Amino acid sequence: MFILLVLVTGVSAFTTPTVVHTGKVSESPITSEKPTVHGDNCQFRGREFKSELRLEGEPVVLRCPLAPHSDISSSSHSFLTWSKLDSSQLIPRDEPRMWVKGNILWILPAVQQDSGTYICTFRNASHCEQMSVELKVFKNTEASLPHVSYLQISALSTTGLLVCPDLKEFISSNADGKIQWYKGAILLDKGNKEFLSAGDPTRLLISNTSMDDAGYYRCVMTFTYNGQEYNITRNIELRVKGTTTEPIPVIISPLETIPASLGSRLIVPCKVFLGTGTSSNTIVWWLANSTFISAAYPRGRVTEGLHHQYSENDENYVEVSLIFDPVTREDLHTDFKCVASNPRSSQSLHTTVKEVSSTFSWSIALAPLSLIILVVGAIWMRRRCKRRAGKTYGLTKLRTDNQDFPSSPN
Amino acid sequence: MEICWGPYSHLISLLLILLFHSEAACRPSGKRPCKMQAFRIWDTNQKTFYLRNNQLIAGYLQGPNIKLEEKIDMVPIDLHSVFLGIHGGKLCLSCAKSGDDIKLQLEEVNITDLSKNKEEDKRFTFIRSEKGPTTSFESAACPGWFLCTTLEADRPVSLTNTPEEPLIVTKFYFQEDQ
User: Fold this and answer.
1) Backbone angles phi and psi of A195, in degrees to 5
2) Selected residues 73-112 of chain B with any CB under 8 Å from a CB in chain A
3) Domain A250-355, CATH
4) pLDDT tens sequence across A153-179
Protein backbone atom coordinates (compact mmCIF):
# COMPACT_ATOMS: atom_id res chain seq x y z
CA MET A 1 0.00 0.00 0.00
CA PHE A 2 2.84 2.39 0.86
CA ILE A 3 4.55 1.73 -2.46
CA LEU A 4 1.27 2.41 -4.23
CA LEU A 5 0.88 5.68 -2.32
CA VAL A 6 4.40 6.73 -3.27
CA LEU A 7 3.69 5.76 -6.86
CA VAL A 8 0.52 7.84 -6.97
CA THR A 9 2.33 10.77 -5.40
CA GLY A 10 5.19 10.36 -7.83
CA VAL A 11 2.86 10.23 -10.80
CA SER A 12 1.13 13.32 -9.49
CA ALA A 13 4.42 15.18 -9.04
CA PHE A 14 5.87 14.37 -12.44
CA THR A 15 2.78 14.72 -14.60
CA THR A 16 3.10 17.60 -17.04
CA PRO A 17 -0.16 19.53 -17.43
CA THR A 18 -1.28 19.78 -21.03
CA VAL A 19 -2.94 22.93 -22.32
CA VAL A 20 -5.94 21.85 -24.33
CA HIS A 21 -7.91 24.50 -26.20
CA THR A 22 -11.06 22.66 -27.19
CA GLY A 23 -13.74 24.72 -28.82
CA LYS A 24 -16.57 23.09 -26.94
CA VAL A 25 -17.03 20.55 -24.21
CA SER A 26 -17.94 17.17 -25.60
CA GLU A 27 -21.47 16.28 -24.64
CA SER A 28 -21.16 12.52 -24.71
CA PRO A 29 -19.96 11.00 -21.42
CA ILE A 30 -17.44 8.19 -21.31
CA THR A 31 -19.39 4.99 -20.89
CA SER A 32 -17.90 2.32 -18.69
CA GLU A 33 -16.57 -0.71 -20.46
CA LYS A 34 -18.28 -3.12 -18.10
CA PRO A 35 -21.07 -2.80 -15.54
CA THR A 36 -19.56 -1.66 -12.23
CA VAL A 37 -20.83 -1.83 -8.71
CA HIS A 38 -19.22 1.10 -6.94
CA GLY A 39 -17.46 0.23 -3.70
CA ASP A 40 -16.89 -3.36 -4.78
CA ASN A 41 -13.30 -4.36 -3.85
CA CYS A 42 -12.16 -0.74 -4.05
CA GLN A 43 -9.59 0.82 -1.72
CA PHE A 44 -11.06 3.98 -0.20
CA ARG A 45 -8.34 6.63 0.02
CA GLY A 46 -10.26 9.15 2.08
CA ARG A 47 -11.69 12.58 1.56
CA GLU A 48 -10.14 15.37 -0.46
CA PHE A 49 -9.35 18.02 2.12
CA LYS A 50 -10.47 20.95 0.00
CA SER A 51 -14.21 21.30 -0.30
CA GLU A 52 -15.67 22.76 -3.48
CA LEU A 53 -17.65 25.86 -2.48
CA ARG A 54 -19.70 27.31 -5.34
CA LEU A 55 -22.73 29.43 -6.22
CA GLU A 56 -25.99 28.09 -7.62
CA GLY A 57 -26.80 28.71 -11.24
CA GLU A 58 -23.14 28.51 -12.22
CA PRO A 59 -20.98 25.81 -13.82
CA VAL A 60 -19.02 23.65 -11.38
CA VAL A 61 -16.20 21.18 -11.97
CA LEU A 62 -15.10 18.50 -9.54
CA ARG A 63 -11.63 17.14 -10.10
CA CYS A 64 -10.85 13.62 -8.98
CA PRO A 65 -7.87 13.76 -6.58
CA LEU A 66 -6.76 10.25 -7.45
CA ALA A 67 -5.32 11.33 -10.78
CA PRO A 68 -5.47 15.09 -10.55
CA HIS A 69 -3.59 15.96 -13.73
CA SER A 70 -3.62 12.98 -16.03
CA ASP A 71 -6.11 12.48 -18.81
CA ILE A 72 -7.80 9.21 -17.92
CA SER A 73 -9.51 8.84 -21.27
CA SER A 74 -6.16 8.58 -23.04
CA SER A 75 -5.33 5.41 -21.15
CA SER A 76 -6.96 2.43 -22.80
CA HIS A 77 -6.85 0.16 -19.76
CA SER A 78 -8.26 2.44 -17.07
CA PHE A 79 -11.38 4.47 -16.50
CA LEU A 80 -12.92 6.72 -13.93
CA THR A 81 -16.50 6.94 -12.73
CA TRP A 82 -18.40 9.27 -10.42
CA SER A 83 -21.30 8.72 -8.08
CA LYS A 84 -23.03 10.63 -5.32
CA LEU A 85 -22.90 9.21 -1.82
CA ASP A 86 -26.67 9.02 -1.35
CA SER A 87 -27.29 7.41 -4.71
CA SER A 88 -26.36 4.05 -6.14
CA GLN A 89 -26.55 5.41 -9.68
CA LEU A 90 -23.48 6.46 -11.60
CA ILE A 91 -23.51 10.15 -12.38
CA PRO A 92 -24.12 10.37 -16.14
CA ARG A 93 -27.17 8.12 -16.22
CA ASP A 94 -29.87 10.05 -14.48
CA GLU A 95 -28.89 13.72 -14.66
CA PRO A 96 -28.49 15.66 -17.92
CA ARG A 97 -26.76 18.54 -16.14
CA MET A 98 -23.81 16.31 -15.24
CA TRP A 99 -21.22 14.56 -17.33
CA VAL A 100 -17.70 13.20 -16.99
CA LYS A 101 -14.75 14.15 -19.14
CA GLY A 102 -11.39 12.68 -18.20
CA ASN A 103 -10.99 12.93 -14.44
CA ILE A 104 -13.40 15.86 -14.16
CA LEU A 105 -17.08 15.85 -13.31
CA TRP A 106 -18.99 18.74 -14.88
CA ILE A 107 -22.16 20.13 -13.32
CA LEU A 108 -23.78 22.80 -15.43
CA PRO A 109 -25.45 24.60 -13.91
CA ALA A 110 -25.25 23.64 -10.23
CA VAL A 111 -28.24 23.87 -7.90
CA GLN A 112 -28.30 23.80 -4.11
CA GLN A 113 -29.58 20.22 -4.10
CA ASP A 114 -26.32 19.17 -5.76
CA SER A 115 -24.55 19.77 -2.44
CA GLY A 116 -23.13 16.60 -0.94
CA THR A 117 -20.35 14.06 -1.13
CA TYR A 118 -19.20 12.78 -4.50
CA ILE A 119 -17.15 9.62 -4.92
CA CYS A 120 -14.79 9.11 -7.82
CA THR A 121 -13.67 5.57 -8.58
CA PHE A 122 -10.47 4.98 -10.51
CA ARG A 123 -10.17 1.49 -11.91
CA ASN A 124 -7.64 -0.28 -14.08
CA ALA A 125 -6.63 -3.88 -14.72
CA SER A 126 -4.71 -4.28 -11.48
CA HIS A 127 -6.49 -2.18 -8.85
CA CYS A 128 -9.40 0.03 -7.88
CA GLU A 129 -9.32 3.20 -5.77
CA GLN A 130 -11.89 5.64 -4.47
CA MET A 131 -11.86 9.12 -3.02
CA SER A 132 -14.60 11.53 -2.02
CA VAL A 133 -14.98 15.23 -2.78
CA GLU A 134 -17.30 17.55 -0.88
CA LEU A 135 -19.43 20.01 -2.83
CA LYS A 136 -21.42 22.84 -1.27
CA VAL A 137 -23.62 25.00 -3.48
CA PHE A 138 -24.65 28.32 -1.93
CA LYS A 139 -27.28 30.85 -2.87
CA ASN A 140 -25.85 33.72 -4.86
CA THR A 141 -26.47 36.27 -2.10
CA GLU A 142 -24.32 38.55 0.04
CA ALA A 143 -24.83 36.21 3.00
CA SER A 144 -22.78 33.55 1.20
CA LEU A 145 -19.72 35.77 0.82
CA PRO A 146 -17.84 34.53 3.91
CA HIS A 147 -18.37 30.93 2.81
CA VAL A 148 -17.09 31.27 -0.74
CA SER A 149 -14.55 34.12 -0.65
CA TYR A 150 -10.88 33.61 -1.38
CA LEU A 151 -8.52 35.51 0.93
CA GLN A 152 -5.84 37.59 -0.78
CA ILE A 153 -3.48 40.18 0.72
CA SER A 154 -1.75 43.26 -0.66
CA ALA A 155 0.71 45.55 1.03
CA LEU A 156 -0.04 49.21 1.65
CA SER A 157 1.44 51.71 -0.83
CA THR A 158 2.44 49.01 -3.31
CA THR A 159 0.91 47.82 -6.56
CA GLY A 160 -1.55 45.18 -5.39
CA LEU A 161 -2.50 42.10 -7.37
CA LEU A 162 -5.76 40.19 -7.34
CA VAL A 163 -6.01 36.84 -9.08
CA CYS A 164 -9.26 35.28 -10.27
CA PRO A 165 -8.79 31.72 -8.99
CA ASP A 166 -9.67 28.20 -10.08
CA LEU A 167 -10.77 28.86 -13.67
CA LYS A 168 -8.38 26.47 -15.40
CA GLU A 169 -10.99 24.07 -16.82
CA PHE A 170 -13.25 26.85 -18.04
CA ILE A 171 -10.47 28.84 -19.70
CA SER A 172 -9.14 25.81 -21.52
CA SER A 173 -12.66 24.95 -22.68
CA ASN A 174 -13.65 28.46 -23.66
CA ALA A 175 -10.58 30.50 -24.54
CA ASP A 176 -12.53 33.61 -25.52
CA GLY A 177 -14.38 33.92 -22.23
CA LYS A 178 -14.63 37.49 -21.02
CA ILE A 179 -13.81 38.39 -17.39
CA GLN A 180 -15.22 41.43 -15.59
CA TRP A 181 -13.99 42.73 -12.24
CA TYR A 182 -16.20 44.35 -9.61
CA LYS A 183 -15.53 45.95 -6.26
CA GLY A 184 -18.72 45.33 -4.35
CA ALA A 185 -21.34 46.18 -6.97
CA ILE A 186 -19.16 48.64 -8.90
CA LEU A 187 -17.80 47.51 -12.26
CA LEU A 188 -14.10 48.27 -12.58
CA ASP A 189 -13.98 49.08 -16.27
CA LYS A 190 -10.98 50.16 -18.30
CA GLY A 191 -11.69 53.81 -17.65
CA ASN A 192 -10.92 53.42 -13.95
CA LYS A 193 -7.45 54.85 -13.35
CA GLU A 194 -6.85 53.22 -9.99
CA PHE A 195 -7.40 49.71 -11.34
CA LEU A 196 -5.21 48.51 -14.14
CA SER A 197 -5.43 45.60 -16.48
CA ALA A 198 -2.56 43.16 -16.15
CA GLY A 199 -2.98 41.95 -19.72
CA ASP A 200 -4.11 38.59 -18.42
CA PRO A 201 -7.84 39.12 -17.74
CA THR A 202 -7.69 36.82 -14.70
CA ARG A 203 -5.55 39.42 -12.88
CA LEU A 204 -6.36 42.85 -11.55
CA LEU A 205 -3.69 45.36 -10.55
CA ILE A 206 -4.35 48.01 -7.92
CA SER A 207 -1.99 50.95 -8.25
CA ASN A 208 -0.73 52.35 -4.94
CA THR A 209 -2.83 50.21 -2.61
CA SER A 210 -4.57 52.10 0.18
CA MET A 211 -6.65 50.99 3.15
CA ASP A 212 -9.80 51.94 1.22
CA ASP A 213 -9.01 49.19 -1.30
CA ALA A 214 -9.72 46.49 1.27
CA GLY A 215 -13.02 44.64 0.95
CA TYR A 216 -14.88 42.22 -1.30
CA TYR A 217 -14.13 41.93 -5.01
CA ARG A 218 -15.73 39.76 -7.67
CA CYS A 219 -14.48 38.47 -10.96
CA VAL A 220 -17.13 37.16 -13.30
CA MET A 221 -16.30 35.07 -16.34
CA THR A 222 -18.83 34.42 -19.08
CA PHE A 223 -18.81 30.81 -20.18
CA THR A 224 -20.64 29.65 -23.29
CA TYR A 225 -21.88 26.12 -23.68
CA ASN A 226 -24.21 24.91 -26.43
CA GLY A 227 -24.92 28.49 -27.34
CA GLN A 228 -26.00 29.41 -23.84
CA GLU A 229 -24.05 31.82 -21.62
CA TYR A 230 -23.35 31.16 -17.96
CA ASN A 231 -21.62 33.30 -15.34
CA ILE A 232 -18.73 31.90 -13.33
CA THR A 233 -18.16 34.04 -10.25
CA ARG A 234 -15.22 34.07 -7.88
CA ASN A 235 -15.46 36.21 -4.75
CA ILE A 236 -12.27 37.58 -3.22
CA GLU A 237 -11.75 39.27 0.10
CA LEU A 238 -8.80 41.64 -0.13
CA ARG A 239 -6.96 42.58 3.02
CA VAL A 240 -4.42 45.39 3.04
CA LYS A 241 -1.33 44.79 5.11
CA GLY A 242 0.26 47.87 6.61
CA THR A 243 3.95 48.01 5.72
CA THR A 244 4.76 50.08 8.80
CA THR A 245 3.97 47.20 11.14
CA GLU A 246 7.48 45.81 11.08
CA PRO A 247 10.39 48.23 11.58
CA ILE A 248 13.90 47.82 10.28
CA PRO A 249 15.93 47.02 13.41
CA VAL A 250 18.93 49.23 14.14
CA ILE A 251 21.68 47.81 16.34
CA ILE A 252 22.96 50.60 18.60
CA SER A 253 25.51 48.79 20.75
CA PRO A 254 28.05 47.26 21.39
CA LEU A 255 31.18 49.04 20.13
CA GLU A 256 33.48 47.42 17.58
CA THR A 257 35.96 46.51 20.30
CA ILE A 258 35.25 45.80 23.94
CA PRO A 259 38.07 46.30 26.48
CA ALA A 260 38.30 43.51 29.04
CA SER A 261 40.74 41.98 31.52
CA LEU A 262 41.52 38.30 31.28
CA GLY A 263 39.84 36.37 34.06
CA SER A 264 37.26 39.06 34.65
CA ARG A 265 33.52 38.81 34.29
CA LEU A 266 32.15 40.73 31.33
CA ILE A 267 28.61 41.65 30.24
CA VAL A 268 28.14 43.01 26.72
CA PRO A 269 24.59 44.21 25.92
CA CYS A 270 23.35 44.20 22.35
CA LYS A 271 20.84 47.03 22.18
CA VAL A 272 18.47 47.25 19.20
CA PHE A 273 16.22 50.19 18.31
CA LEU A 274 12.77 49.13 17.04
CA GLY A 275 11.24 52.48 16.20
CA THR A 276 8.02 53.85 17.65
CA GLY A 277 5.61 51.10 16.54
CA THR A 278 3.38 49.25 18.96
CA SER A 279 4.85 45.78 18.58
CA SER A 280 7.55 43.90 16.77
CA ASN A 281 8.56 40.35 16.05
CA THR A 282 12.24 41.21 16.08
CA ILE A 283 14.44 38.57 17.64
CA VAL A 284 17.99 39.24 18.77
CA TRP A 285 20.74 36.72 19.35
CA TRP A 286 24.51 36.40 19.57
CA LEU A 287 26.90 34.28 17.52
CA ALA A 288 30.51 33.31 18.21
CA ASN A 289 32.39 32.61 14.97
CA SER A 290 28.97 32.21 13.30
CA THR A 291 27.91 29.61 15.88
CA PHE A 292 25.09 29.87 18.41
CA ILE A 293 26.43 30.68 21.87
CA SER A 294 24.86 27.61 23.49
CA ALA A 295 26.49 25.40 20.86
CA ALA A 296 29.90 27.12 20.99
CA TYR A 297 30.06 27.12 24.81
CA PRO A 298 28.19 24.03 26.06
CA ARG A 299 29.73 24.37 29.54
CA GLY A 300 28.30 27.85 29.91
CA ARG A 301 31.45 29.92 30.26
CA VAL A 302 29.85 32.33 27.78
CA THR A 303 26.07 32.64 27.91
CA GLU A 304 23.29 34.68 26.35
CA GLY A 305 21.15 36.81 28.63
CA LEU A 306 17.38 37.15 28.57
CA HIS A 307 15.41 38.87 25.81
CA HIS A 308 14.61 42.23 27.38
CA GLN A 309 12.15 44.51 25.59
CA TYR A 310 11.39 47.99 26.93
CA SER A 311 10.44 51.56 25.98
CA GLU A 312 12.20 54.85 26.60
CA ASN A 313 10.39 58.08 25.66
CA ASP A 314 7.97 56.15 23.40
CA GLU A 315 10.87 54.51 21.59
CA ASN A 316 11.10 50.73 21.63
CA TYR A 317 14.25 48.77 22.32
CA VAL A 318 15.21 45.17 22.79
CA GLU A 319 18.37 44.07 24.57
CA VAL A 320 20.15 40.73 24.79
CA SER A 321 23.43 40.56 26.71
CA LEU A 322 26.44 38.36 26.12
CA ILE A 323 27.92 37.25 29.45
CA PHE A 324 31.55 36.10 29.85
CA ASP A 325 32.37 34.36 33.10
CA PRO A 326 35.30 34.67 32.92
CA VAL A 327 37.02 36.21 29.89
CA THR A 328 39.82 33.99 28.57
CA ARG A 329 42.60 34.48 26.04
CA GLU A 330 40.58 32.45 23.54
CA ASP A 331 37.98 35.25 23.45
CA LEU A 332 40.54 37.70 22.07
CA HIS A 333 40.59 35.71 18.81
CA THR A 334 36.83 35.06 18.52
CA ASP A 335 34.45 36.98 16.25
CA PHE A 336 31.35 37.89 18.25
CA LYS A 337 28.31 39.03 16.31
CA CYS A 338 24.92 40.30 17.38
CA VAL A 339 22.07 39.60 14.93
CA ALA A 340 18.66 41.30 14.90
CA SER A 341 16.07 39.76 12.60
CA ASN A 342 12.40 40.23 11.77
CA PRO A 343 10.21 39.47 8.74
CA ARG A 344 11.24 42.72 7.13
CA SER A 345 15.00 42.74 7.60
CA SER A 346 18.07 41.33 9.30
CA GLN A 347 20.92 43.38 10.72
CA SER A 348 24.17 42.34 12.35
CA LEU A 349 27.06 43.95 14.19
CA HIS A 350 30.52 42.47 14.76
CA THR A 351 32.58 43.02 17.88
CA THR A 352 35.83 41.70 19.36
CA VAL A 353 37.24 41.53 22.87
CA LYS A 354 40.49 43.43 23.42
CA GLU A 355 42.77 42.85 26.41
CA VAL A 356 43.28 45.73 28.83
CA SER A 357 46.12 44.96 31.30
CA SER A 358 45.96 48.15 33.41
CA THR A 359 42.37 47.68 34.47
CA PHE A 360 41.95 46.59 38.04
CA SER A 361 39.82 43.50 38.24
CA TRP A 362 37.88 42.75 41.38
CA SER A 363 37.43 39.08 40.61
CA ILE A 364 41.21 38.66 40.33
CA ALA A 365 41.77 40.51 43.60
CA LEU A 366 39.00 38.63 45.37
CA ALA A 367 40.79 35.28 45.60
CA PRO A 368 44.06 36.46 47.22
CA LEU A 369 42.11 38.93 49.33
CA SER A 370 40.02 36.11 50.75
CA LEU A 371 43.17 34.13 51.43
CA ILE A 372 44.81 37.03 53.28
CA ILE A 373 41.71 37.52 55.39
CA LEU A 374 41.67 33.85 56.29
CA VAL A 375 45.37 33.81 57.18
CA VAL A 376 45.13 36.97 59.29
CA GLY A 377 42.04 35.58 60.98
CA ALA A 378 43.80 32.33 61.74
CA ILE A 379 46.84 34.11 63.21
CA TRP A 380 44.67 36.29 65.39
CA MET A 381 42.73 33.30 66.67
CA ARG A 382 45.97 31.45 67.40
CA ARG A 383 47.25 34.36 69.47
CA ARG A 384 44.11 34.39 71.58
CA CYS A 385 44.33 30.63 72.10
CA LYS A 386 48.03 30.89 73.02
CA ARG A 387 47.24 33.25 75.96
CA ARG A 388 44.82 30.77 77.51
CA ALA A 389 47.24 27.93 76.85
CA GLY A 390 49.95 29.98 78.67
CA LYS A 391 47.78 30.17 81.76
CA THR A 392 47.25 26.45 81.71
CA TYR A 393 51.00 25.91 81.44
CA GLY A 394 51.59 28.06 84.59
CA LEU A 395 49.21 25.92 86.60
CA THR A 396 51.10 22.81 85.59
CA LYS A 397 54.40 24.29 86.74
CA LEU A 398 53.08 25.02 90.22
CA ARG A 399 52.02 21.42 90.69
CA THR A 400 55.49 20.23 89.66
CA ASP A 401 57.11 22.48 92.32
CA ASN A 402 54.86 21.01 95.02
CA GLN A 403 55.87 17.49 94.10
CA ASP A 404 59.60 18.35 94.33
CA PHE A 405 59.26 19.78 97.88
CA PRO A 406 58.00 16.55 99.65
CA SER A 407 60.83 14.46 98.15
CA SER A 408 63.66 16.63 99.62
CA PRO A 409 62.96 15.81 103.39
CA ASN A 410 63.53 12.12 102.54
CA MET B 1 39.61 24.59 73.74
CA GLU B 2 36.10 24.22 72.24
CA ILE B 3 34.94 27.54 73.65
CA CYS B 4 37.89 29.20 71.98
CA TRP B 5 37.13 27.95 68.40
CA GLY B 6 33.32 28.02 68.35
CA PRO B 7 32.34 31.60 67.40
CA TYR B 8 35.08 32.01 64.79
CA SER B 9 34.23 28.84 62.86
CA HIS B 10 30.70 30.20 62.51
CA LEU B 11 32.10 33.40 61.07
CA ILE B 12 34.18 31.45 58.57
CA SER B 13 31.14 29.43 57.50
CA LEU B 14 29.16 32.62 57.01
CA LEU B 15 31.89 34.07 54.82
CA LEU B 16 31.97 30.97 52.65
CA ILE B 17 28.20 31.00 52.24
CA LEU B 18 28.32 34.64 51.20
CA LEU B 19 30.97 33.87 48.63
CA PHE B 20 29.00 31.02 47.12
CA HIS B 21 25.82 33.04 47.12
CA SER B 22 27.60 35.80 45.28
CA GLU B 23 28.82 33.26 42.75
CA ALA B 24 25.34 31.79 42.26
CA ALA B 25 23.85 35.21 41.63
CA CYS B 26 26.17 35.69 38.64
CA ARG B 27 24.47 33.00 36.55
CA PRO B 28 21.19 34.17 34.97
CA SER B 29 18.22 31.87 35.41
CA GLY B 30 15.22 31.47 33.14
CA LYS B 31 14.72 29.78 29.79
CA ARG B 32 16.29 30.89 26.56
CA PRO B 33 13.85 32.63 24.17
CA CYS B 34 12.73 30.41 21.29
CA LYS B 35 13.92 31.63 17.91
CA MET B 36 11.23 29.85 15.86
CA GLN B 37 8.67 32.14 14.27
CA ALA B 38 5.45 31.17 12.47
CA PHE B 39 4.52 33.05 9.31
CA ARG B 40 1.77 33.19 6.80
CA ILE B 41 3.37 32.72 3.39
CA TRP B 42 1.94 33.31 -0.07
CA ASP B 43 3.50 33.60 -3.48
CA THR B 44 3.39 36.67 -5.72
CA ASN B 45 0.40 35.08 -7.46
CA GLN B 46 -1.62 34.98 -4.21
CA LYS B 47 -1.35 31.21 -3.73
CA THR B 48 -0.99 29.77 -0.22
CA PHE B 49 0.26 26.38 0.99
CA TYR B 50 -1.71 23.35 2.09
CA LEU B 51 -1.04 19.63 2.47
CA ARG B 52 -2.34 16.84 0.30
CA ASN B 53 -1.09 13.25 0.67
CA ASN B 54 1.79 14.51 2.80
CA GLN B 55 2.88 16.83 0.03
CA LEU B 56 3.00 20.61 0.19
CA ILE B 57 0.68 22.12 -2.42
CA ALA B 58 0.22 25.74 -3.50
CA GLY B 59 -3.33 26.79 -4.31
CA TYR B 60 -6.21 29.13 -3.64
CA LEU B 61 -8.19 28.57 -0.45
CA GLN B 62 -11.68 29.92 0.14
CA GLY B 63 -14.16 30.08 3.01
CA PRO B 64 -13.74 27.19 5.48
CA ASN B 65 -10.92 25.75 3.36
CA ILE B 66 -8.74 28.58 4.67
CA LYS B 67 -8.21 26.61 7.88
CA LEU B 68 -6.23 24.08 5.80
CA GLU B 69 -3.54 26.69 5.17
CA GLU B 70 -0.08 25.65 6.36
CA LYS B 71 1.93 28.27 8.20
CA ILE B 72 5.69 28.26 7.70
CA ASP B 73 7.89 27.91 10.77
CA MET B 74 11.22 29.65 10.36
CA VAL B 75 14.33 29.32 12.49
CA PRO B 76 17.10 31.77 11.58
CA ILE B 77 20.61 30.32 11.58
CA ASP B 78 22.73 33.18 10.37
CA LEU B 79 22.09 36.55 8.81
CA HIS B 80 20.57 35.02 5.68
CA SER B 81 20.24 31.33 6.45
CA VAL B 82 17.10 29.68 7.80
CA PHE B 83 15.51 26.34 8.51
CA LEU B 84 11.94 26.02 7.24
CA GLY B 85 9.22 23.77 8.58
CA ILE B 86 5.49 23.28 9.07
CA HIS B 87 3.33 21.85 11.86
CA GLY B 88 5.18 23.73 14.58
CA GLY B 89 8.54 22.69 13.17
CA LYS B 90 7.83 18.95 13.35
CA LEU B 91 8.08 18.61 9.56
CA CYS B 92 11.04 20.29 7.87
CA LEU B 93 11.63 21.27 4.26
CA SER B 94 14.77 19.79 2.75
CA CYS B 95 16.51 19.41 -0.58
CA ALA B 96 16.93 15.76 -1.55
CA LYS B 97 19.40 14.61 -4.22
CA SER B 98 18.98 11.27 -5.95
CA GLY B 99 21.44 11.12 -8.83
CA ASP B 100 20.84 14.22 -10.93
CA ASP B 101 17.32 14.61 -9.61
CA ILE B 102 16.64 17.43 -7.13
CA LYS B 103 13.45 17.26 -5.06
CA LEU B 104 11.87 19.18 -2.22
CA GLN B 105 11.05 16.88 0.68
CA LEU B 106 9.15 17.10 3.93
CA GLU B 107 11.10 15.23 6.59
CA GLU B 108 9.87 14.27 10.05
CA VAL B 109 12.56 16.10 11.97
CA ASN B 110 12.13 18.53 14.85
CA ILE B 111 13.37 21.89 13.62
CA THR B 112 14.89 22.74 17.01
CA ASP B 113 17.13 19.65 16.76
CA LEU B 114 18.78 20.93 13.59
CA SER B 115 22.20 22.51 13.74
CA LYS B 116 24.07 24.64 11.25
CA ASN B 117 27.34 22.96 12.17
CA LYS B 118 26.25 19.46 11.17
CA GLU B 119 26.99 18.64 7.54
CA GLU B 120 23.99 16.29 7.32
CA ASP B 121 21.65 19.14 8.31
CA LYS B 122 22.82 21.27 5.40
CA ARG B 123 20.01 19.92 3.23
CA PHE B 124 17.56 21.71 5.53
CA THR B 125 19.27 25.08 5.15
CA PHE B 126 17.83 27.75 2.87
CA ILE B 127 19.49 31.04 1.99
CA ARG B 128 16.94 33.80 2.29
CA SER B 129 17.23 36.88 0.12
CA GLU B 130 14.94 39.87 0.00
CA LYS B 131 14.16 41.94 -3.07
CA GLY B 132 11.85 44.77 -2.14
CA PRO B 133 8.84 43.32 -0.31
CA THR B 134 9.37 39.77 -1.57
CA THR B 135 11.63 36.96 -0.38
CA SER B 136 13.17 34.00 -2.17
CA PHE B 137 14.82 30.87 -0.76
CA GLU B 138 17.79 29.07 -2.27
CA SER B 139 18.81 25.66 -1.01
CA ALA B 140 22.26 25.66 0.61
CA ALA B 141 22.80 21.98 -0.17
CA CYS B 142 21.70 22.44 -3.79
CA PRO B 143 23.07 25.83 -4.88
CA GLY B 144 21.10 27.49 -7.65
CA TRP B 145 17.88 25.68 -6.72
CA PHE B 146 15.06 27.87 -5.39
CA LEU B 147 11.83 27.15 -3.54
CA CYS B 148 9.06 27.57 -6.09
CA THR B 149 5.42 27.16 -6.99
CA THR B 150 3.87 26.90 -10.44
CA LEU B 151 1.59 29.51 -11.92
CA GLU B 152 -1.09 26.83 -12.09
CA ALA B 153 -2.96 26.22 -8.85
CA ASP B 154 -3.01 23.03 -6.79
CA ARG B 155 0.42 21.87 -7.89
CA PRO B 156 3.23 20.83 -5.52
CA VAL B 157 5.67 23.28 -4.00
CA SER B 158 9.09 22.27 -5.31
CA LEU B 159 12.57 23.45 -6.24
CA THR B 160 13.68 24.97 -9.54
CA ASN B 161 17.00 26.00 -11.05
CA THR B 162 15.30 28.15 -13.67
CA PRO B 163 13.76 30.92 -11.52
CA GLU B 164 13.17 33.18 -14.53
CA GLU B 165 10.84 30.64 -16.17
CA PRO B 166 7.50 32.46 -16.73
CA LEU B 167 5.36 29.60 -15.42
CA ILE B 168 7.40 29.39 -12.19
CA VAL B 169 7.01 31.58 -9.10
CA THR B 170 10.00 31.90 -6.75
CA LYS B 171 9.03 35.07 -4.87
CA PHE B 172 7.02 35.00 -1.65
CA TYR B 173 5.39 37.37 0.81
CA PHE B 174 5.47 36.91 4.57
CA GLN B 175 3.30 38.00 7.43
CA GLU B 176 3.82 37.12 11.06
CA ASP B 177 1.16 34.73 12.27
CA GLN B 178 -1.02 36.66 14.73
Assistant:
1) -110, 125
2) 76, 78-80
3) 2.60.40.10
4) 888 888 888 899 998 788 777 666 778
